[in-house]
Amino acid sequence: MISLDKITKNGKAMFLAYDQGLEHGPADFNEKNINPNYILDIAVNGGFTAVILQKGVAEKYYTGSKYEELIPLIIKLNGKTNLCKGEVYSPQVCGVDEAMDLGASAVGYTIYAGSQYESTMFQEFGRIVKDAHSHGAPAITWVYPRGKDIKDDAAPDIIAYAARVALELGADMAKIKYSGSKESFTWAVKAAGKMPVVLSGGPKTENEEEFLETVKNVMAAGGTGAAVGRNVWQHADPVAMSKKIAKIIFG
Ligand code: FBP
């Protein structure tokens, strides 16, 4: 099995996700968090085990900078905007070699299971796993069931299916949405077998306790950690919030 050591601490993962500029556009940002340097500082000072960037941001703000020594990088290899509606497909926009040249320790790829384009994404991810492993690097997949046939993308059986899809496709780790309870997330973790599962943060909750409770349930369910974006960098005090999350994940 590929080692996750470079992007975890004591076997646990806490990733700062910052690919929303592509997925959602600047609508997610304010005057501070629109600046990638602000995010990289949070990643370093908040105790994250890696930061997730698209290649353009990585190339201009991470590669060759002081951050290379301070925080491991996960490059997101595919992406799409929310400007196009209809069946979802997220094309690969960066190769594994390119990601390695940018200093990545791991790569990430979103699969919209259930979309009419899932077979294309399965094939792309299959090649990515092979390429990443030839570099000794882990391939993580965000599995988000989506498309006209998916009625409830957070239903417990759908989330457990997402976790299993990642295991079956050879992912080294899966990032999945919360299934709503500790019990249902436990089943999703079980479905993932030996492959670790991390929580995908989601939109900023009304109060921080709500999000911290979710992280607690994920860890109690056997989760390996969390990949969080908006609940941290949209928070008034991102480093303080990160430390609260870290306390739950690392104990
Ligand atoms: P958040 O914690 O901000 O939800 O980030 C997690 C993430 O998976 C990001 O990596 C990605 O940009 C975003 O959610 C995609 O969200 P969605 O597809 O649900 O709009």
TrEMBL record:
Active site (record annotation): Y144, K175
GO molecular function, one term: fructose-bisphosphate aldolase activity
Annotated SMART domains: DeoC
InterPro entries, per database record: Aldolase_TIM, DeoC/FbaB/LacD_aldolase, DeoC/FbaB_aldolase, FbaB-like
One of the Pfam families matching this protein, by short name: DeoC
Protein name, as recorded: Aldolase
Record organism: Candidatus Azambacteria bacterium RIFCSPLOWO2_01_FULL_46_26
